[in-house]
């Protein structure tokens, strides 16, 4: 199944350089503390995007990674900025910020008016992967300063700079593994190859997130080094988790992975169990909400469900939930959930405050270096009959109109109609066969003509029934309202009609209602009153499809033990039994391919002989999967790993 997207955005190099220079100057005047450190990390991440974009632009032009003045300037820039982060971390966020003089020169030399394709590093945005983890891992590795540090783009661009800064090494070299996701390879031009292999007796550190299902990105770099005369005993790995390689890895890679050092410090060791209180997440949270009455309570991987009756547990795939904790204070509990490092986290904070101030979501205390702190509200789940009541439809209309009218414009547009249709047809064919996909294609018809009328906004993309709470008698709250318009899938920000169509599916509106009858018609009118266009291009398209589920039996044709990825979760997911309070499988160090298999879903939904994975992928904010790449656990970008279920990743049940 197709699940993940590979979100990219275009930025100009000269504007990025100007932004980085301005933020560096401002950071020097910030008071010492975690807020200043957070800004230094954000600046490093932005510089990493600049260097990644420039390197990939040259790779596209030359067909191989090669030495250039631009690359060397970028490598020095990142090493200097990584040094600022390292000093801030090791000094407990105290002391002045002294920016090296060559940083200004590096930025000035990179200010070409070039359009860069920027890839947001997944670990920083979704999976609580911290540069400081690599700083500590490198410090404990015992590697000398003459180690050759190699970072794998995208995220390895900044992570390798952190490793080099930690051990005092020279600026790192970054490479982009290319080719088949299960059989990555390198394209290294002669001069860069000569530089890398200048001292074959040196130690080599390979730095990246992951590994994924095959580990071929790490593996192809190590293969290249060994094939060019470097001893395997000289190769050291800096991965994102402590697990092994997945089942798609080759024997050579598995043997090497088991034998060679893997230097890993996970987020729990970094922020939850540190000996230095200045680096403790709980200490940062206490400055926002007051003293904590007990240690942070881990509620990741579905553990939040223990607050619910056992017979009302929503489905989860714990491997893909964001890290989250409960902070208990005298004023009650607070949810501490990973929102993203750098600018990704700041965007979530702005959005969370806007929604909370408008009364749609729980109150927000602030952001602690990637973790959003939001009030844990004691409220009940909405009952099914309540979703068809006029009061809820009116509230939903106000909520969607507020998102369309008041949230900041999306940083990047979501998938095009062509990509959404491609995703739906491929997934339908894999699940039900070519005939079903052909019928779906006929139903889509001329869907792409809507492209010119679609106006992307910050859509919710996750309107599941268990996302709605009732506080007191009538106050309705939406949970999990921040992440899914910029999640690790292709969907992204869409027209507000996407959420209107999603509501018509999730809340079981009838065919007449879907076509513009009482409830759905009223919902569209309520959204339209906000002066945002809600004539429902997507909604009109989706209204072609009749309602009425039909059981089509068991899913066939999947690898043993692999689940389908999410569509309508209550149809496509099964909640685990109540005793299984840790969810369906999860690793504290992040998701990876060696987790236990999830039981396949037993049944799927069918609408008028068209698989719901096709129709509801266009109608609901939780698609079966976006076109563009195979299902993969977060590791190397584009490297397939374990397929995913629709995962519950919510502020509250």
Helix/strand class? alpha+beta
- How far the N terminus sits from the C terminus, by CA atoms, comes to 27 Å
Number of helices, where a helix is a run of at least 4 consecutive DSSP H or I residues: 22
Radius of gyration: 25 Å
Please state the average pLDDT score.
80
Instruction: Give the number of DSSP strands.
Output: 16
Could you give a short account of the major beta sheet?
5 strands, antiparallel
* Shape annotation: globular
List low-pLDDT spans: 534-538, 541-653
What does this structure look like?
This protein is of the alpha+beta class and 653 residues long. The protein has helices at 13-27, 34-62, 69-90, 101-109, 122-126, 131-139, 156-167, 190-196, 216-227, 251-259, 267-272, 281-289, 343-357, 390-406, 417-432, 434-444, 496-506, 511-514, 518-528, 537-542, 569-572, 612-619; strands spanning 8-12, 115-119, 148-152, 173-175, 204-207, 235-238, 297-298, 324-329, 332-338, 364-368, 371-375, 380-381, 468-471, 475-478, 606-607, 610-611. The strands form five sheets. The protein has a five-stranded antiparallel β-sheet. Strands 4-3-5-6 form a four-stranded parallel β-sheet, sandwiched between helices. Helix 2 runs antiparallel to helix 3. Residues 534-538 and 541-653 have low confidence and may be disordered.
């Amino acid at each position: 199944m197709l699940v993940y997207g590979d979100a990219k955005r275009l930025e100009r190099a000269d504007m990025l350089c100007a932004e980085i220079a301005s933020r560096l100057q401002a950071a020097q005047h910030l008071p010492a503390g975690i807020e200043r450190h957070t800004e230094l990390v954000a600046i490093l991440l932005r510089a990493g995007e600049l260097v990644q974009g420039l390197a990939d632009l040259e790779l596209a032009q030359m067909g191989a990674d090669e030495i250039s003045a631009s690359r060397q300037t970028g490598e020095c820039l990142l090493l200097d900025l990584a040094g600022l982060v390292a000093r801030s971390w090791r000094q407990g966020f105290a002391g002045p910020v002294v920016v090296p003089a060559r940083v200004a020169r590096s930025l000035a030399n990179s200010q070409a008016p070039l359009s860069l394709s920027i890839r947001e590093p997944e670990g920083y945005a979704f999976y609580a992967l911290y540069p400081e983890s690599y700083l500590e891992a490198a410090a404990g590795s015992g590697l000398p300063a003459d180690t050759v540090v190699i970072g794998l783009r995208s995220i390895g661009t900044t992570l390798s700079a952190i490793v080099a800064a930690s051990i005092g090494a020279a600026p790192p070299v970054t490479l982009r593994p290319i080719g088949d996701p299960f059989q990555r390879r390198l394209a290294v031009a002669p001069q860069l190859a000569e530089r890398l292999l200048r001292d074959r007796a040196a130690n080599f550190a390979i730095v990246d997130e992951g590994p994924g299902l095959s580990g071929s990105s790490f593996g192809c770099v190590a293969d290249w080094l060994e094939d060019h005369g470097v001893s395997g005993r000289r190769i050291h790995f800096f991965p994102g988790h402590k697990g092994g390689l997945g089942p798609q890895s080759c024997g050579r890679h598995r043997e090497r992975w088991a034998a060679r050092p893997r230097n890993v410090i996970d987020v729990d060791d970094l922020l939850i169990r540190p000996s230095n209180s200045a680096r403790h997440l709980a200490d940062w949270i206490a400055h926002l909400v007051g003293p904590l009455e007990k240690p942070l309570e881990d509620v990741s991987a579905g553990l939040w469900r223990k607050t619910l009756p056992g017979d009302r547990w929503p489905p989860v795939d714990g491997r893909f939930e964001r890290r989250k904790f409960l902070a208990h204070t005298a004023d009650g509990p607070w949810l501490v959930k990973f929102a993203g490092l750098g600018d990704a986290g700041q965007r979530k904070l702005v959005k969370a405050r806007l929604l909370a101030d408008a009364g749609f979501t729980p109150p927000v205390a602030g952001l602690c270096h990637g973790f959003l702190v939001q009030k844990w509200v004691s409220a009940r789940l909405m009952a099914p009959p309540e979703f068809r009541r006029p009061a809820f439809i009116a509230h939903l209309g106000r909520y969607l109109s507020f998102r369309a009218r008041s949230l900041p414009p999306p940083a990047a547009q979501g998938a095009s109609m062509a990509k959404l249709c491609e995703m739906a047809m491929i997934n339908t064919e894999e699940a039900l066969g070519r005939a079903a996909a052909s019928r779906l294609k006929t139903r889509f018809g001329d869907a792409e003509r809507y492209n010119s009328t679609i106006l992307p906004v910050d859509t919710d993309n996750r309107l599941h029934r268990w996302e709605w709470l009732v506080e007191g008698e009538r106050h309705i709250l939406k949970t999990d309202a921040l992440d899914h318009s910029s999640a690790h899938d292709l969907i992204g920000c869409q027209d507000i009609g996407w959420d209107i169509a999603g509501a018509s599916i999730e809340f079981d509106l009838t065919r007449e209602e879907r076509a513009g009858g009482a409830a759905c018609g009223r919902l569209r009118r309520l959204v339209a009153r906000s002066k945002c266009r809600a004539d429902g291009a997507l909604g009109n398209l989706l209204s072609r499809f009749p309602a009425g589920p039909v059981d089509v039996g068991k899913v066939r044709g999947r690898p043993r033990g692999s689940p389908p990825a999410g569509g309508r979760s209550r149809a496509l997911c099964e909640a685990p039994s109540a005793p299984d309070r840790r969810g369906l499988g999860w690793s504290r160090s992040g998701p990876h391919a060696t987790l236990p298999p999830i039981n396949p879903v037993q049944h799927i939904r069918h609408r008028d002989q068209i698989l719901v994975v096709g129709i509801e992928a266009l109608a609901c904010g939780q698609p079966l999967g976006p076109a563009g790449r195979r299902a993969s656990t977060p590791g190397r970008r584009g490297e397939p790993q374990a397929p995913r279920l629709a995962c519950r990743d919510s502020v509250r049940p």
